[in-house]
Amino acid sequence: MHQALYRKWRPKTFDDVCGQEHITSVLRYEIKNGAPSHAYLFCGSRGTGKTTCAKILAKAVNCEAPVNGSPCCKCPSCLSIENGSATDVLEMDAASNNGVENIRDIRDEVVYTPSQLRYRVYIVDEVHMLSTSAFNALLKTLEEPPAHVIFILATTELHKLPATIVSRCQRFDFRRIAAGVLASRISYIAKEEQIELDPAAAERIARMAQGGMRDAISLLELCAGGGGRIDMQTVDEMMGSVGRESILSLVSAVANADYDAIFEAISEAVAASRDLAVFWQDLIGVYRDMLVMKTTDQAARYLDLADAEAGELKALAARFTKGTLLAHCRLLEDALFAMQKANAVKRMVAELTLVRMCDPRLDTSLEGLVARVEKLEDAALTGTLAAKNAPKVEPEAPTAQKPSEPKQASSEESVAPSKAEPAQRKQAPAPSVPKAENGGRVLTRMRGFINCIERIRRENAMLASFISDARAYLDEQKRVVVILPNAFAEMMLEQNGGRDVLRHALCLELAREVHDRELLVETADAPSAKNDTIIDDILSAAEGVQE
Fold it and tell me: Is residue 425 part of a domain?
């Protein structure tokens, strides 16, 4: 009878366990020194080696000739545990045996000494599925079991275990296995099983396994089911994926708003009977990688990508702003949930979502508005928007002088202005920096002052109400000039430490220290200083409005 590869290649000693050296080294030390714990708790995601290490530990504590803390796998004890004939090692699935009566049976059995082995070992898998009554029945036995009993509990959801259970066990957290380790292991298995596996396909399988060794080996067996060499195309066909290159091409089409390419990509995926849900998850994964590229300088630590793939992804991420990436991620997430609820309209959901991603005006969500504002701010900072909005002045056609008119001589002073006038008309009026009315100083608008008011509102709502209509500028010496709407607001700011609260909010927004002498508080002489909003800041910066 055929045996699944993940069972056939399950590690038999601690040396064979991949990616969990921080756990196997401790277990080996305890076995070597003859000091095993009375209860162990193995927690971690699926396929990371919890049950495997539990069985190896059961063999190691009963092995007649352990080798460096690992079982020898040759003595009668190891062989009996391996073939499942040892009655002193009991493996229980708590998902189907979660009642209090099952735990009472264990509690009644632990008083008896082992019949053949040195220790009686209880392996309880998915222990978080036990009922509350079962946990209560297990507490006392788990805390003070007989010297010949060892409990090994395994779970994928640690947060569901009572704290009283966790505190009675020696806890080990199993990590997700790195993609490089998974690729190396499945390449070794493929070589031993005489399966032709391309290195690129092995890396692809390792990334799709998401840190689980069992998933990686199962995917390898699935791809090898058709016979022949396993390459990237084979993996994509078996997993219903369209390949990373196709996904990157689709993202590039979104950046270019190329609707033909978008509809063509979806049409090809549907025609090839690809699962659009898997296709969509791959697309979300690429957006996640781009967001990592965009937000950190050490993206290589968080992405399992080759240098060529990282360079291509970085160039693609440079075409989006962070706000746009976040808005697209929200649209993709909502579309994935819609696909899971309505299988019949997956194609329509995918196409509509991609069209909305191409045109920001079609996205009315908060993330979409933030992306549009961010794009407007970037255009304002680079000056492209101000140049675009500058009025165009058409040059006037020269008028022919009538021959009957005598040529009038003029002085140099009168001719100079007439020559300079057309040149002045051709130049677009450049936006000037706003100046304070009472001092002739050159002031620049402090952007983000609305954020300072929101911080003050969380600490002192009354103070925020008095300065909510204020405007803030930076002078030539980088001092902050706050112009309040009236003298009463200035009086309230100067009382009860309001000035210090404002300075603290300014420090957080400007990311620098603002001393008391660097904060100038004035009152406005004109009503134009009122009703300042974040939209006013954006439009002023974008359109070059003169204050």
Answer: no
Which of 313, 312, 323, 321 lies closest to 293 in space, CA to CA? Answer: 313
Structural domain contains residue 422:
no
Single pTM value for the model: 0.60
- Lowest average pLDDT, out of 120-129, 393-402, 409-418, 468-477, goes to 409-418
Residues in contact with 425: Cβ distance below 8 Å, sequence separation at least 6, in sequence order: 393, 395, 396
Shared-domain flag, residues 252 and 187? no
Identify whether residues 160 and 56 lie together within a single domain. Answer: yes
Each residue's pLDDT tens digit, 332-346: 998 888 888 877 688
Secondary structure (H, E, C), 94-127: CCCCCCHHHHHHHHHHCCCCCCCCCCEEEEEECH
* Strand 444-445 with 170-174, pairing: unpaired
Tokens 């690429």: give the residue. 286
Distance CA(376)–CA(369), nearest Å, equals 11
Residues 28 and 166 grouped into a single domain: yes
Assess if residue 434 is contained within a domain.
no
User: What DSSP string describes 457-500?
Assistant: HHH-HHHHHHHTT-EEEE-TT--EEEEESSHHHHHHHTSTTHHH
Q: Give per-residue pLDDT as tens, 266-296.
A: 888 888 777 888 888 889 988 998 988 888 8
Give the residue from 219, 239, 259 where a domain finishes: 239
Domain of 210, in residue numbers: 179-239
Number of domains in the chain: 4
Count the helix, strand and coil residues of the chain and give each as a percent rounded to the nearest 5.
Answer: 55, 10, 35
What are 190-226's pLDDT values in tens digits? 999 888 898 888 988 988 888 899 999 999 988 888 7
Domain CATH number, residue 489 = 3.30.300.180
**How does DSSP assign 175-241, residue by residue?**
PPPPHHHHHHHHHHHHHHTT--B-HHHHHHHHHHHTT-HHHHHHHHHHHGGG-S-B-HHHHHHHHT-
